[in-house]
Structure formats: C-alpha cells, structure tokens
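Researcher: Please predict.
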Amino acid sequence: MSQQQIGPQSAQGSGGQRPGAPGSGGPTPASFGFGPGRGGPAGMGMPVEKAKNFKDTFRRLVGYLQPHRFALIVVFLTAVLSTVFSIIGPKILGNATTAIFEGTFVPGAKIDFAYIADILLVLAGLYIISSLFGFVQQYVMASVAQKTVRDLRRDVNEKLARLPLKYFDSRTHGEIMSRAVNDVDNISGTLQQSLTQFITSIVTLLGVVVMMLSISWVMTLITIVTLPLSFLSIRMIAKRSQLYFKGQQKSLGELNGHIEEMYTGHSIVKAFGHEEKSIRRFDEVNGRLYESGWRAQFVSGMIMPLMGFIGNIGYVLVSVAGGLFVLGRSITIGDVQAFISYSRQFTMPITQTAQIANIIQSTIASAERIFELLDETEEVPEAAGAREIARGGQTAAAFKAGHTEETASKAISGPLAPPKGNVRFEHVKFGYKEDVTLIEDMNIDVKSGQTVAIVGPTGAGKTTLINLLMRFYELSGGRITIDGADITRLKRGSLRSIFGMVLQDTWLFNGTIRDNIAYGRAGATEEEVVRAARAANADHFIRTLPGGYDTVLNEEASNISQGQKQLLTIARAILADPAILILDEATSSVDTRTEIHIQRAMSELMQGRTSFVIAHRLSTIRDADLILVMNHGSIIEQGTHEELLTKGGFYADLYQSQFSGRKTQKAI
C-alpha cells in the first residue's frame, strides 16, 4: 500500500531528549511536518495521512483502552509527577547559583556550602523520584499498549477467518497484510511512545510557562514573541522545499519501479538485448532524482541554521533583560539562570506536541483502515441447528432406524452419517454481482464414486462451480445437496472437512516434509504419514533427500521440484481420506516422467471417491464417468467422452483442436 507507515522509531525521534530536560533545543523540523518518519531519504515533504472520520474512529479506538482505564490513570499521574519534579529542578538549582554569587561578590558575605549541599541533595532526590515515576509510567504503559494491540490483532485475525472468499478475491494480499500488520504496528508504536510523550509535553509546556511567569513576566513575553518569527520563517522554507521533495518522491518511486522490473526480468532483458536501453532509462530517472534531491536537501538544510539564529536572538534578548533586572535587584542571578534553562525548554514541548499530533493523525488513519476491515460483511451466519457430518462410523440413530438421508437431516439433531459423496445441483443460480447472473438454472446429479470432469474455456465458470460446492460463495437461488442434505444446513467447517483438494498451484508451508503431509489430518501418526507418501509415489524421493521426512522446506518450497511439491500435496490429500476430491489438473508444468508418477498417485487417490476434476488436457479425462462442458457459466454439454465426441459439438471441437495441435507438433 502507499500509505505512510510511522512506527515506534518515528514516535521517538522527536527531539532526542526527554521533555523538560535542561538544555533542550528549540523547534525541530519534525514539528512542521518534517523529520524522521515523514517519508523520503530525509523524511521530509510527505503529507500526513488523515482519517476520514476522526471522531468516530478515535472513540472506537478508545473503546479498546477502556478495560485498562485504571492503568491509564496510573500512567497519567506518574507522567505528571515525573514531569513536575523535573521542572522544579532549574528553579532550585538557581538558588544554589545565587548563594554562590552572593557569597563571592557581596562584601562581608561568604559561601554557605552546607546550604548548597542541601540544595544538591534535594535536586538529586527530585531527579531520582522523577526517574522512578518515569519508569513506572513506561512499565505500565508498555503493558497497556501491548494488551490493547493483542486484543486488536486477535479481533483482526478472527475477522479474517470469518470473511467470505470474495473479500480476498477483490483485494491484493499486500493490502490485507498492510492492515493486519503495518497498521496494527503503527497503533502499537503510538500507544507505547507518543501517548506518554504527548502527556509529558503538555504538562511540561504548562509547567514551564508557570515557572517563567513566576520569575519574570517581561522575559516570558520576550520568549513568546520570538516563536511566531520562527514559525513564519520555517513555513516559508517548508513551502518551497515541499515542491522539491514531491519531485524527489516521484523520481524515487520511478527509480524503484524501474529497478524492480529490470531485475525481476533480468534474463528477459538480456535475451532481447535491451541492457543499454535499461541503463539509459536508469540514468535519466536517476538524474531527475539527483536534481530534485539536492535542491530539497539544500533548501530544507536552511531550516536548522535559521532556527538556531532566531533562537539565539531570543537567548540574547532574555540574557540582556535578565542582566538589567539583576542590576536593578528585581530578580536574582539564580533566577536568570533558571529562566534561561526554562526558555530553552519552552519550545521543545511545542514541537513535540505538533509532531505527535501528526503521528496521532496517521495512527487514527491506520485505526480507521483496521475498523473498516472489522466492519466488512462476514459470511452468511450458520443456519439455526446447523449439522455436523460424522467421520468414521455410522453414528446417526436415525439412519439405523431406516430414515432416508434427507429426512434424517431434518429429524435428528446428532451428526449426520459419514458421507458417501452423492452430489446434486438443483436449479442453481449464482452471480458475483446482484444484477449480473453468471450461472442460471444449473442441474447436476453426481453419484457416489463417480469421476466428474469439468472443461471449458477460461472464465467459463469451472472454478466458480467448485467454490459454490464448498460454500465459499452463497447461492443466489436453488440448492446443492450432499447425500440429500442441503449444504446450507451444514456447518461450514464440517462441510469442507469432507473435501480434499489437489490444485495446480501447490501450497506448502515452511516446515518439514512430515509436517506438510500431516497437515491433511490432525493427530496423524508417523506410520500413517509414510503410508500416505507411499500411496502418492512420494516416499522414494523423500528418502533420497538429506533429511528424509525431516527435510525442512523453505518459504516457497523452492528446494524441491514442482513435481515433488505436487506429490506431497497428493500425499496430504490421501492422508485426509476425504469423501469428495477436487482436482485441478496438476501435470501441466512438469515433465512427462513426473506426469506419469503424478497420474498414478492421483488414480490411487481417486479410488472409491467422488471426484471433480477441472481438466485442461482433455486426453486425461477420457475415462471420466461424466464430463461437464461449461461456457459463460452454463453447462452446454454433458456426457461421457465418447458420447460428446459423437455429438460433434463444442467438446468435440475443443478436443480435436488439442489433438490436432499435438499431431502438428509431432509432424514438426
């Protein structure tokens, strides 16, 4: 996604010092929309993403904090106390400075070292107490933040499990991952750091103003007057630099895209001899990036010197005014020292508050995206009294009493009998959009143990038929039954447990080969895993690997071949022992020898089971009990291979075109 991500690092990078620490500097670029976490090489010029509905999203996010309200009260109190004890320090330290000054320069006076020692002890105590409160604040806030984010992650994960397949079909994996990971991490960082910083910044600002006013309202006015000059100057520079940063980001995006394209298709670029063209394109974009980059850095680099200059002007004015007041004996030298320290701290909480306000805006935008996910329409709720399908053994008393499967599904509340695999589509109607119908009045009757092949051009509706059978999508009309039971009256998990899938795109996870096969059935023993591998003709190649069944597959399982991947998925399906198989022809991307092994394994898997085969090579489905020919969402022909060839229709043309293509290849 293109959204700006601001994590804990950016939340902390707002000045480099604890709020209220003596010697803190003036405004930072971050306070004006610049600085770390703002995007680009220097992090400048990127606008802060804002929520569409800030109030409602903020209120909803606060709802996740409600269970921890007492802990948050502790955080607030400790943050206030920690900051207050820190703010008092410069004023007390000024008394020590005054005592040394008067003891040195006032005739007849001497330095009271005992008094100074007492002051230093008091200061040490204040800073120790401040640090302790700060520790408690961070400790409690860390617990609150992580518990809140844990609850948020749990809700997101549970929501993803309840979302229908169409949600995932209509969005990229990157977008979903960004909401589930990046946006949650953004909230985590803000709760962990920025929330407490915001509290301490506000308390520091108020405390510093109070302390400065208690010393001299005139010097306080001088300090405040210099702020607008800083803001005005920086805004003028920022406005100009943002134009250059915008160009820099655009050029950087083009450069990254070009590099990704060229290195992803590196072999293609070389094969067609476009290396020079690629280099010229790189140099062109890189040149634009250089031009906009150095201009952006130069203009934005003027900010800190200008801020330092204005800050020093204010520092000089305060020092001169303080000196005059000391000469007039209206304030002490220690008060001047304390005031200078406060004036250096004064701008820090302002800049931090401005930066944190930007971070909070981005955080609420992240929360809004998460809540949009949580508000997505879920799968149709399970029907009242939805049934389970028994696995292994006839357990339903109604069947023993002679009920038919259909009447039993209504008459009893216990599990249905183990599935046999009879499947019927009765006047099925479906469309991905309400006003566009893809499947109209589909009727299919598949008997237990039959092999049904589904053929047709791309977009004909082959995969849609399978998705409807497994209830990944809900019907617009009609019904689908398995052994006479309407699938809408069955629990989804139970329904899908009777299916086994072997798809063209294999899915194996990062783990051992044993674990990947055992994924087919929970609690499978070592003997059962090996037996399934042997049935899938996979045992031999597994034992030739260095680790055997303990060989660890990497994230993309690229350390084994495509054919070996497919054999493992077949072994997994054999171990699952499903009543109904769904096979997406898996031999299109393997060599002939491997294809023979896979076909044998699939034949073993299909024995005695109802099988739906999405076929691409028509030569592999000649022995199917029923072939469904689909086009534009409708079954236009059905029958056996010989019957369809005799009709001379769509299937015959499709078969002859493939056969002719092979003859031509052989002739060549």
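Model: The chain has a mean pLDDT of 79.
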